[in-house]
Amino acid sequence: MTEQRHDTTAGPAREAIARAWDELVATARRTVTDGLVVGTSGNVSVRVGDTVLVTPSGVPYEKLTPADVLGVDLDGNRTIGDLVPTSELPMHLAVYRSTAAGAVVHTHAVHATAVSTLVPELPTIHYMTAALGGPVRVAPYALYGSDELAENMLRALRDRSACLLQNHGTVAYADTLAQAFDRTAQLEWMCQVWLTATAGPGRVPHLLSLSQLHEVEGKLSGYGQVSARPAFEDEAEGR
């Protein structure tokens, strides 16, 4: 990465970045209040044009202010702010370079992390699996912040909008921060359901078939109000 250069954006672009930063901070704080991360673990990013706003490394989310806005370009060069970006920046940038994502949420959610240590793929315990593009894969373990982890994650995300990171946590992306957070929460909930279902001795939960998931995809494509695009419409299109 190159050295930080001062923000030169002005007018509407600056206002868009300010609004996006406020939403990013609110989303990051929600990952804590909803129990998806502890302390400063996990990270959040959102794309505004060619700029990626991202949470800084090691700064408690409740202490972030509008003055702390932090942005990088798609090569990881810091273009806005003075703080050091999250150590997981390579993972976020890999998603933006490879997809049309508008936002990425990474957490260390308890149930999802537990599942990542047990199976190579989350069993199809619930039909909301279809809302994430299909069975959720587990990316093989690699050192956090490494290019290897980013590469493993991209393979697990192929034709999916979320994945598990082995012995680590979750990654979900979407058009918006609200959608990315919703997918993260859905994934954590499904992991909790599977762990609960398998907790009883001698009990084997019923799983959904791929044909049943495909049937759900078609129904999800028409879910919601006519005036509002469903949060999971793009998954049903195989994104």
SSE order in H/E notation? HEEEEHEHEHEEHHH
Overall strand count:
8
Query: pLDDT average, as an integer?
Result: 90
Helix content bin: 25-40%
Instruction: Tell me the β content.
Output: 5-15%
Strand order of the largest sheet: 4-3-2-1-5-8-7-6
* Major sheet: 8 strands, mixed
Ends: how far apart?
30 Å
Q: Indicate the overall shape.
A: globular
Unreliable spans = 1-6, 226-239
Helix/strand-derived category reads alpha+beta
Q: Could you tell me the radius of gyration in angstroms? A: 18 Å
Number of helices: 7
Explain this structure to me?
With 239 residues, this protein is α+β, with helices and mostly antiparallel strands. The chain is built from 7 helices and 8 strands. An 8-stranded mixed sheet has the order 4-3-2-1-5-8-7-6, with helices on both faces. Strand 6, helix 4 (147-156) and strand 7 (162-165) form a beta-alpha-beta unit. Helix 2 (89-98) packs across helix 4 and helix 3 packs across helix 5 (177-197). The two termini are 30 Å apart. Mean pLDDT is 90; it is low at 1-6 and 226-239.
SSE map:
Blueprint: H1 12-33, E1 43-48, E2 51-54, E3 71-72, E4 78-80, H2 89-98, E5 103-107, H3 110-116, E6 138-139, H4 147-156, E7 162-165, E8 169-174, H5 177-197, H6 210-220, H7 233-236
Parallel strand pairs: 6-7
Antiparallel strand pairs: 1-2, 1-5, 2-3, 3-4, 5-8, 7-8
